[in-house]
Amino acid sequence: MYQTSMYEGMLAETIAIPGFQGDLINAYFARPLGPGPFPGIVVVHHMPGWDEWYREATRKFAHHGYAALSPNLYFRAGHGSPEDVAAKVRAAGGVSDEQVLGDLAGAQHYLRALSFSNGKVGVFGSCSGGRHAFLAACRVPGFDAAVDCWGGRVVMAPDEVTPKQPVAPIDYTEDLSCPLLGLFGEEDQNPAPAQVARLEQELKAHGKTYAFHMYPKAGHGFFYYDRRNYRQEQAVDGWKKLFVFLETYLGASTPLSPAAE
Question: CB 128: neighbour CB atoms within 10 A?
């Protein structure tokens, strides 16, 4: 718990990491200053792109004691404003699940190899990033916790399957290798409450460790303070539940040193 006598410091910068097939991609990295050890978290951006909200979220995780890394999943589409790059990616039908999983595996390996790692790494994502976080927790070995915030297209109808998304993530539920936290809104349509219930049914059937929270009067993206769908009360509660969950399964970072008197 934070005390006013504590020293706080943070490093945040853009770096390059090996991703899918060894490609070097850029990523935003933030960590607390100090020797650690710190748990790691891979921060998976949403369909609007590798935008300011995700850089802020990466720093928020670092502020709470995590070595946080947000890879640019749209790196190969070129550079420009996040909005322009995301539009280009959408026009191309999105990025393939295989490529994303390779990038997220690279991010996990980077965090685990840090000298100040405590040996635990989780994965967090919202919207399409929530889908990717769930998929990574099923298909990429080594994650210790996963957070899916309103990830759509986890449950997919047969006609929604595409060459880039060839399997609905729910079909991999049996392979989920770590505890899962899900945060959802009752007014969301992607995923709709019925789809969330379907995923929960599958998690129960396979005996998985999970916790789902469905928020009334909230829809898609209720964490996004810069959008109309922001819901302050639900977002604050969701962040609290998220950090309790992560501390449970990733461990707490080394307490910050007291400030000099």
Answer: 21
Does 220 participate in catalysis according to the annotation?
Answer: yes
Say which of 46, 64, 103, 127 is annotated catalytic.
127
Residue 127 a catalytic site member: yes
Q: Evaluate whether residue 258 is within a structural domain.
A: no
* Distance between CA atoms of residues 93 and 38, nearest Å: 37
Residue-wise pLDDT for 89-130, tens only, equals: 999 999 999 999 999 999 999 999 999 999 999 999 999 999
Out of 45, 46, 132, 220, pick the active-site residue. Answer: 220
CA 123, 59, 14, 131 torsion-angle sign: positive
Residues 6+ apart with CB under 8 A from 227: 221
Tell whether 259 is covered by a domain.
no
24-32 and 10-18 beta bridge pairing: antiparallel
3-class DSSP state for residue 189?
Answer: coil
| pLDDT tens-place string over residues 171-194 | 999 999 999 999 999 999 999 999
Domain assignment present for residue 109? The answer is yes
The total domain count for the chain is 1
Proportion of the chain above pLDDT 70, given as a percent: 96
Domain range enclosing 29: 10-250
| H helices present in 142-255, as ranges | 193-205, 232-250
Burial class (CB in 10 A: 0-12, 13-18, 19+), 72: buried
Strands of the chain, DSSP E? 10-18, 24-32, 38-44, 67-71, 117-126, 145-149, 180-185, 210-215
Residue 46 lies in a domain: yes
- Cα-Cα end-to-end distance for the chain: 19
CATH number at residue 60: 3.40.50.1820
